[in-house]
Amino acid sequence: MIVSDVSVHTIHAPLKEPYTIAYETISEVTNHFVVVRMHGGLCGIGCAAPAPEVTGESVEASRKALDIFARKAPGLAIDALPLPTPETPSALAAVDLARVDVLARRASTSIAGLFGHADGAQRPRETSITIGISGVEATLQRARSLYAEGFRFFKVKGGHDVDADIERLGMLRSTFGPEIRLALDANQGYRLSDVERLEKNTQSLDLLYLEQPTPKEDLPKLGQAAELTHVPVMADESVQSVQDVQRIAKAGPVALINIKLQKMGGLAAAQAIDEAASDHQMGTMLGCMDESALSIAAALLFGATHPNVRYLDLDGHLDLQEDPFESLVRLDGNGRLSTPSDLGLGWSTVPFGQDRS
After folding, report:
1. Both 276 and 307 in a single domain?
2. Residues 170, 48: Cα–Cα separation, whole Å
3. Do 131 and 222 share a structural domain?
4. Which of 27, 134, 169, 219 has an alpha carbon within 20 to 30 A of 351's alpha carbon?
5. What span, in angstroms and rounded, lies between the C-alpha atoms of 241 and 273?
6. Does 118 fall in a domain?
7. What is the domain range of residue 63?
8. Stated pTM of the model
9. How many domains does the chain have?
């Protein structure tokens, strides 16, 4: 199969609910989409959701990488595409998703079918939902609203103040009791003394994991943090490659790895990282950026076909006000996600026309 044309499209999407994490407040996000058209009519679409603090690239660098790809790809075979470099992982993810989308459609199957698990891949799976950094009352108000919508798995953002984090988690547990599942994402904001304080004051809260408590570049400190708490520690910003997984495994008893397609560079990289984590007796979670349901659908199908994936944190599409692929991921009344059992990534109509803006 030979590429006939490639177009790139950028969407600036405001969020329905701006949120605060340890280092910024986010109210709008940018996603790029790459559309790869083949001679003969097949088409594949991928999404890039760059975020400098996580993927390590700017919005502009991601778009530039996709524009270069769009100029080079026409006339080449689908298996010989000029991939963006690892320095622009979201652009690499977009191209990878478009490529796999084409391959699945050629095989008359879904993405799950390419992994050999077409049957049952659409079973709904629970996702966590994120509660940003805020005061106790605002946290409870947000949690009550999400609970009323059917969500039962809350991932609380923290890292600014460990005592405030402990208070918020305690109030959530006392308010909702065992009805909810709780996890904490410190977004690199903790010192080891904060981890010790968290450990002493959250024994009864049944936290499922503590995500990236310490600075991403300090792997020994991440390993030390894992030794200081009974709560399973998860690496997020610290891991972007198989080599990172191996280094983290040597640093200490880190239990979980957060796989984000946009951070790792797509499905092929995600599979390699999931296998490396499994080899080191670490489970994985599928996380996300603020990204289109197109990319969320790919992650959801990956999770449904890889048993080492323990958790889903795939809520990044829910707050986007302008997502051309919103219908690709269904949310039921119990905080569970599912995808349609269609070809490739599940879309049926290219929503962009020929505009390349």
Report:
1. yes
2. 37
3. yes
4. 27
5. 6
6. no
7. 3-112
8. 0.93
9. 2
